[in-house]
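Handout, section B. The chain below has 217 residues.
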Amino acid sequence: MPSTLYHRRGKRLLDLAIALPVAVVAAPVVAVVAVATAVSVGRPILFRQTRPGLGGRPFEIAKFRTMSNERDSAGALLPDEARLTRVGKVVRGLSLDELPQLWNVLRGDMSLVGPRPLLVRYLDRYTPEQARRHEVPPGITGWSQVNGRNALSWEQKFAFDVWYVDNVGLALDLKILARTAIKVVRRDGVAATGHATMPEFMGSTAANLTDSPPNLP
């Protein structure tokens, strides 16, 4: 990963310069989504979970809930796609469920741009190369999000993440933010086929590691 002035200080300044005014402007939208979430899935309206951040250090992420707690006759939660509510589909399709993460950006847990923070249990499943995605702060959006999002395989997403780690810079971050706005409007790659988001990452096989991402610079 290149050690540049932007990476050491500029990236944090960009986060604050954008996240703070966006949080203020988005406050009415946050209020509407909070009410809609309370009506559609009840309380609590936020989904909270520990995720690994920079260097794999844990932090708590918050998102608006988009799924109910419906269970089968045995008491087990139904699959994600069965619990995703109509309101949740709209909220997730427009990425509004991610708005509470602006607080994570302001706190310094996350950046606006970086590899998405995944589950703690994935840490032991990464290859050494895939684990390099934790060399930069996790982001609300990232290079893999604007190059396919959940339509990519896990191996393709991680390859994009590691490429970002090696090429992080102001021009790239601004490019990703601009392309993110377009992706949100188009609702591209919101979910993998047959899933509400992505199937669980169980680790890469030798065959999967040859699954190169399309259009990798």
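Note. Strands lie at 46-52, 58-64, 111-113, 139-141. Compare this with the example in section A.
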